[in-house]
Design goal:
alpha/beta; about 120 residues; 4 helices
Length: about 120
């Protein structure tokens, strides 16, 4: 039922707090999109947070394909996302575009049981 996962990390919440969810995602062979949030704060340290997240992926034995995760830098409070830290503040389009590019659509089960909702 899950086709993709956004791993939301911040400076105040070290990536180790997301270890359980990330581990389950990697076991399902999902390729997470990492969102480094709260970059608008003066003490954000987005590069350090991204490095810690990469280390966590390695610790959980992520595949090479999973280690090639995209990073989106965001400020949920201010309502913008960026692919590069130097990009201009606009809106959440970079995050939505990344989701559309990285999360594969569901594969229908044509011979499976039908469901009524």
């Amino acid at each position: 039922m899950v086709d993709g996962v956004l791993l939301l990390v911040t400076r105040s919440r070290a990536p180790c707090q997301t270890k359980f969810v990330l581990k389950k995602s990697l076991e399902l062979h999902l390729k997470p999109i990492v969102v480094v949030n709260k970059i608008d704060r003066p003490n954000a340290r987005p590069h350090e947070v991204a490095d810690m997240t990469f280390d966590l992926f390695c610790e959980l034995n992520a595949t090479d394909e999973q280690l090639d995760f995209p990073i989106v830098y965001a400020s949920g409070k201010q309502g913008y996302a960026r692919i590069e830290l130097d990009d201009a503040d606009t809106d959440m389009t970079p995050l939505l575009t990344t989701i559309l590019r990285r999360v594969l659509p569901p594969v229908p089960m044509l011979n499976g049981p039908s469901r009524c909702w």
